[in-house]
């Protein structure tokens, strides 16, 4: 073997090529699996589409990048080596970054983190991306060697910090662009919305006058500001009020007057006309809002004794 055929550490050109090709094939398989896990989340997690459309579109782009770079890596395309590592870093950053956006969707960071890490596909994506990075570090010796070799077409491999950052910036820009095509939050798109709102002309802080309420017809109101609730006059004359944020992942539930129930459009939780849980995956009732009625019959919210995970 000639001097030019080996590096100072005894790596031959052929061994570097074959070693990197094996690593790239494995990275490609991992990224394709990661894309499949992301596709599963998009197909099964209704909260992405109903609560955070920008996150859903961002994940769509991540999946497309994983599939594209994964296929290139699977066939040992040298140009995909740094982009595959950049895709893994971007995926991890975006997934962990999602957790800190919890307050935008009425949730505590702790509750949202527990939900996300309870999704096997979410966890699998993190693990696969971490393994891709480990493989990238493990194959660094081969990559550095090939980056120093030149062929008729130029360098065997583009391997530099600048190249990595360019790939990371390009992918990040693509994700940011599709995310900006949507609003951060959208109202739920399915189900029947509430038929009435806080009574016009009511005193400041009042929801409605009891005498104007129609039995079993919910009245929408916000309390505290920004948090949706429903006030309901029951047939026996009693008043109940409760949050409309599902206690599973804080999607807004929708009233169905045909069955007098509230359903969550994200994961299918179901609550009765008083906010009691009928069907999961939510585990507890909708939080109750306490009420008081003044001498003129106006109803006021006074507190939320057990706010649950959706009050921040």
Description:
This protein is an alpha+beta fold and 312 residues long. It folds into 2 domains: 3-180; 208-310, Rieske [2Fe-2S] iron-sulphur domain (Rieske Iron-sulfur Protein), CATH 2.102.10. The chain is built from 8 helices and 12 strands. It has helices spanning 13-44, 46-51, 53-74, 81-99, 109-117, 120-138, 140-148, 161-180; strands spanning 150-151, 154-155, 208-209, 219-222, 228-233, 239-243, 254-256, 261-263, 270-271, 277-279, 290-293, 298-303. Strands 7-8-9-10 form a 4-stranded antiparallel beta sheet, with no helix packed on it. A 3-stranded antiparallel beta sheet has the order 3-12-11, with no helix packed on it. Strands 4-5-6 form a 3-stranded antiparallel beta sheet, with no helix packed on it. The radius of gyration is 27 Å and the shape is elongated.
Throw out a few tags for this protein:
alpha+beta, Rieske Iron-sulfur Protein, 4-stranded antiparallel beta sheet, 312 residues, 3-stranded antiparallel beta sheet
Summarize the structure.
The protein has 312 residues and is of the alpha+beta class. It is 44% helix and 13% strand.
Number of domains: 2
Distance between the termini: 68 Å
Number of helices: 8
Total strands: the figure is: 12
Low-confidence stretches: 1-8, 183-196
One letter per element, helices H and strands E, the order comes to HHHHHHHEEHEEEEEEEEEE
Rounded Rg: 27 Å
State the share of residues found in helices, binned by percent: 40-55%
Q: Describe the global form.
A: elongated
Which strands sit side by side, in order, in the main sheet? 7-8-9-10
Question: How much beta, percentage-wise?
Answer: 5-15%
Average pLDDT for all residues: 84
Largest sheet: 4 strands, antiparallel
Q: Structural class, please?
A: alpha+beta
